[in-house]
Specification:
By secondary structure, this protein is mainly alpha-helical. Helix content is about 45%, strand content about 10%. The protein has one domain. The protein has a two-stranded antiparallel ribbon with strand order 1-2. The N and C termini lie far apart (about 55 Å).
């Protein structure tokens, strides 16, 4: 898995040059969602991802982010849960 770790590229998210090793584990054990955009044409990135990650991981990593309304509703639900009156003991 670490075959390409010594390669470097500019990271648009961090604003600096980083090694491939960071990109393939940016989320702990999961690759950065921008890994394909940054490394396409420099490495066989699609083949690398298919070889080293399960389809479920890749689906989760590359899933589109939630829309603005969905994020607002999620925050509202969490707030409502945290402010709900506790049952009497």
């Amino acid at each position: 898995m670490n075959r390409y770790d010594h390669y470097q590229t500019y990271c648009r998210s961090l604003g600096d040059c980083i090694h491939f090793s960071y990109c393939r584990a940016a989320g702990g054990q999961e690759p950065c969602a921008r890994i394909v955009d940054c490394w396409i044409g420099r490495l066989p990135i699609v083949e690398f991802l298919k070889t080293h990650y399960t389809p479920e991981v890749l689906e989760r990593v590359f899933a589109p982010p939630p829309g603005r309304l969905q994020r607002i509703m999620s925050i509202a639900e969490r707030v409502a849960q945290n402010t709900a009156p506790h049952s009497a003991r």
